[in-house]
Amino acid sequence: MSQDDPRQRKIRLGDLLIQAGLLTDTQLQLALQEQKRSGSKLGRAVIDLGFVAEAKLLTALSEQMKIPFIELRHFKFDNPLVQLLPEAMARRFRAIILTREGGGLLVGMSDPLDLFALDEMERLLKTRVSPAVVREAELLATLDTVYRRTSEIASIAGELEGDLQESDFDLSKLGADSNTEAPVVRLLQTLFEEAVQMKASDIHIEPDEGLVRIRQRIDGVLSEQVMKEHRIASALVMRLKIMSGLDISEKRLPQDGRFNIRVKGRNIDVRVSTMPVQFGESVVMRLLDQSGAMFQLDGTGMPADLLVRFRRLLHRPFGMVLVTGPTGSGKTTTLYAGLSELNSPEKKIITVEDPVEYRLPRVNQVQVNTKIDLTFGRVLRAALRQDPDIVLVGEMRDQETAEIGLRAALTGHLVLSTLHTNDAMTSAMRLIDMGAEPFLVATALNAVLAQRLVRKVCENCMGEHSPEPRELAWLENLYGSSLAGRIFKRGSGCHQCHNSGYSGRVGVYELLEMDEPMVAALRRSDPQGFAEAAKANPHYRPLAACALDYALAGVTSVEEVLKVCATLTDEVVV
Fold it and tell me: Which residues are paired to 221 by β-bridges?
């Protein structure tokens, strides 16, 4: 041990803070009483009581103990090195391996005076451990990102594969086994825990020749883990079918189901879709966090001026408002946020959905079921006899649904719905193409909101980025003036964003409100005239322009703007 090792010097935190002039004897006694009452560490008690700011306490520890104070937000981790310390021990001792140093390991700790933790880590790692002081909140957030469950998943998968090879018992028995220690149950539990930890929206289980792929969609992008234990796929599918109430004997047809599961204190609604593929059955699970389903328009990321206009449209007594975009663009979230704002005891709201994604209080939600002929059209007709003020139709899928919805919008109802189109301008004409009468669309449609989701640059690793000349020329054409000297941001990749350079997503929008020239073009069923009238509207700004605004503000990257542009035009921009 070195002379400055805390285990040799036996430093006590209270004495250290008094010596540094940060704490009085009276405050120390009060902090000790609070520590005894709450069971927390003395440092946490001192901070919670407001006697010493966390930054000052950690700086004092660093100076007095002659150990470094590390800001984890800006630290580049070596993942194999971090994994030397098991996650359970890292969380127990509030510690994380930072780097190799002088023949030993430098370990970040929220409490570097914890002598027992230091000794235990040295015993386990079989090398000298030197402490560094780190912020506790930063440490806990970092532990969630660096300790992914990939190795645990692989280990349980191997165990399950071994069970399947050792005996020829019926797979359905394995799937139905309620024993929480069964490998298939632990594997699924670990998969869901990692997905929630990584904020994944979907889990894909895909059997292939001699292997199985497990993929998670994080911020709209899939990440993959490949396992050679290909026989586990059938056991996983069997278990998921049982949990979803599906037919375990039917392997030739697609099936859809759902179940609820509680993961890390969160209530997760899981929508399950199975599909027969060449080497078995593929399963995709959409994860919907019911515990965090608080929808607010202010949280959607809409620009302030557009939000004011959209709110005004929602508070009109009748007419149709469409929200459009491809699958996974956040249409349902926007509509639910609108419904949450309109939801009051004075208004009756009925939704027709396939499926019902989130449960909303006071809202009458109906899920269509084509097996018993409970279609959008049939439910919508019944809903209009229930005296609603507001009707939400999950999707305009056919002529019948479109015409019923449009007529409802003309007879004193506010109708909200979605449509799968690329932008706002093509949406109104899509209704006419589906068979709706042009005069109905022209009279009933109030506005169309088109949206996409773009990834946000990770704040922890963002840096300045200069677009290539071709990209800059495209952006200047979109912006309408020179962008020389404007600063763009891009993430280099770090532990917090899983080396992607992005963390989270934000919506980009375009709102098209019907005016006289657009209505006249709709009556004539004139796509070209409608497009020209839309572009002439002074309030209209295209999706790509909204995305560029975010890039200029440093929220997203040039790459994400170009992706939005590429989905709206046939020209390849990258």
Answer: 218
Residue 279: other Cβ atoms inside 10 A? 15
Q: What would the two tokens of residue 82 be? A: 């971090």
pLDDT at 155: 60
CA pair distance 158, 481, nearest whole angstrom: 59
Q: Rounded CA gap, 164 and 232, in Å?
A: 8
Q: Confidence band (pLDDT; 50, 70, 90) for 308?
A: very high
* Residue 267 φ then ψ, to 5°: -90, 110
The mean predicted confidence, pLDDT, of the chain is 82
Write the DSSP string, 307-360. Answer: HHHHHHHHTSSSEEEEEE-STTSSHHHHHHHHHHHH--TT--EEEEESS--S--
Element (H, E) at 393: strand 390-393
Which of 378, 392, 401, 310 minimizes the C-alpha distance to 348? 392
User: Is 431 within 8 Å of 406 (Cβ atoms)?
Assistant: yes
Choose among 240, 209, 205: nearest CA to 225: 205
Asked if residue 417 lies in contact with residue 320, where contact means CB atoms within 8 angstroms, the answer is yes
Assess contact for 501 and 568: CB atoms under 8 A.
Answer: no
- Which tens digit of pLDDT belongs to each residue from 70-93? 888 777 788 788 888 888 888 888
Entry pTM: 0.71
Kindly report the backbone phi and psi dihedral angles of residue 166, in degrees, each rounded to the nearest multiple of 5, phi listed first.
-70, -30
Q: How confident is the model at residue 408, as a pLDDT? A: 92
Q: How far apart are CA 243 and CA 261, in angstroms?
A: 10
DSSP structure string for 355-375: S--S--TT-EEEE-BGGGTB-
* φ, ψ dihedrals at 298, nearest 5°: -65, -20
pLDDT, tens digit, 9 for 90 and up, residues 495-545: 778 778 898 888 999 999 999 999 999 999 998 999 999 989 988 888 888
User: Which tokens go with 18?
Assistant: 């008094």
Q: 193 or 37: which carries more pLDDT confidence? A: 193
Provide the pLDDT confidence category of residue 156 given band limits of 50, 70 and 90. Answer: low
**Cα separation, 201 vs 223, whole angstroms:** 12
